[in-house]
Amino acid sequence: MQISFAALDIPKTGVVVAGVIEDGVLPPTTKALDDQLGGLITRTLKGGRFRGKKDQSLMLLSPAGGGLDALLLVGLGKESALGALRSEALGSQIYAALAPHGHAEAYVALDALAGTPVDAAGLAASLGLGALLRAYRFDKYFTKLKDEEKPALGSLVIGTPEAARARTLFASMATTADAVAFTRDLVSEPGNVINPATLAEQARSLADLGVEVEVLSEKEMRKLGMNALLGVAQGSANEAKLVVLRWCGLGKPDAAAKKGKKGKRTADKGGDGEAGADSPLAFIGKGVTFDSGGISIKPAANMEDMKWDMAGAAAVVGVIRALAARKARVNAVGAIGLVENMPSGQAQRPGDVVTSLSGQTIEVINTDAEGRLVLADVLWYVKDRFKPKLMVDLATLTGAIIIALGHEHAGLFATDDELADRLTAAGAAVGEPLWRLPLGEAYDKQIKSDIADMKNVGNRSAGSITAAQFLKRFVEGTPWAHLDIAGVAWTTTDRETAPKGATGFGVRLLDRFVADNYEAR
């Protein structure tokens, strides 16, 4: 999808999109277009239900009184509510309305409106971003699509009085949108294409952007003592991987962490031994490339959806890609634990006890509560090796979070109020909302084991919270937040800026979180 910006004009040919403010008020360019068409827009408003409310649209094909192929009227709603997110939704709405009609290009006339909370350039850039995100398609496996089944719209020209500035603003947005698309592609791929090895190879492509990429094998993880992660992987023929991505936008720390005896991580003098000004932000992702449930096998119905149980890992790859592509002035580490959870003669059994990298022992009650076992070792590894300023993990961790929050919010758990507030604000700014849930000792008691330091599940109540309590045992004093994205990583219906399928949730959120709070100016 090609998005471009041009001076505000009143086209006489082609496909034109014009806005109408709530209650049928015409912005200046729409009024001029109405005059050009002999009052057609005014008559249309008087004779129908379209009144310019948000989400309303009306397509007029070959309108009389001019040479236009089509005129799409879109409701702008109230000027006071037309901010960046509303403009993104407007761009998405425009794309969805035009894509099926066979027109290759359209011109959007977007006036500067005095009552909006965002200026003309911001509105235009956000509209372009919304259209770009909605235009995403994962159709590589269709072999017999007819031309009429494919969206024809390939170019959107946005007319604005601030075209040059809109172009500059959009360039940064498009970089992030590219990272979202990359993440969506990873999540959409089937399990026979994306496995731990192939996902690690996809992550290696970030080296082209200046990211340092390190991939640890099962042998190396076993030497380190990552038995919680490896226990999940032992039923699969696909070897587990741990991928570490380092973006050093502030320059490399004085000395990189290195392996010490018995797999422990230590630091050279003046290096990563203590968190400091150049210590990285750390993002950790659950990467279960297919989750059958293991011996605690899932029901057959809808198990094909478990290809996206690596959406947290894909989002981490996506945000590191976004930071590197825009040369963000920040040090960041992304770490993803990649496993496939399968039943076999070698698979982990309910009742097994494993010793995690931290030295804490875990009784595995349910092999389908595997994501927390993967994250436990990766969280400890990152904390111990990199001494980060903070850690944020993303995981499609629990079905219970969908029961609690549906598909509207991701669950947020945090040990630090400022970190939680900053993540919540970033999510609200980009339309990826979070809802904070509690942590507490009473929930922690639910995962007490009779034969080990802890068990990997509690009882049926507060399942998302007890999962977060489990993870909390592997972060020690590092500020930490856990995002349970099980309800928002995938959508079964078209949403404002995400067509049906993988959403890429978390990439824009974390990119904004970094930009607003941690980048050097």
TrEMBL record:
Pfam families: Peptidase_M17, Peptidase_M17_N. The gene is pepA. Mn(2+) 1 binds at D291, D368, E370. GO terms for molecular function: manganese ion binding; metalloaminopeptidase activity. The active site is at K298, R372. The lineage of its organism: Bacteria, Pseudomonadati, Pseudomonadota, Alphaproteobacteria, Rhodospirillales. Binds 2 manganese ions per subunit. SUPFAM superfamilies: Macro domain-like, Zn-dependent exopeptidases. Presumably involved in the processing and regular turnover of intracellular proteins. Catalyzes the removal of unsubstituted N-terminal amino acids from various peptides. Belongs to the peptidase M17 family. GO terms for biological process: proteolysis. Residues 254-274 are annotated as: Disordered. This is Probable cytosol aminopeptidase. Residues 366-373 form the Cytosol aminopeptidase domain. The keyword Transferase does not apply. Its cofactor is Mn(2+). It catalyses: Release of an N-terminal amino acid, preferentially leucine, but not glutamic or aspartic acids; Release of an N-terminal amino acid, Xaa-|-Yaa-, in which Xaa is preferably Leu, but may be other amino acids including Pro although not Arg or Lys, and Yaa may be Pro. Amino acid amides and methyl esters are also readily hydrolyzed, but rates on arylamides are exceedingly low.
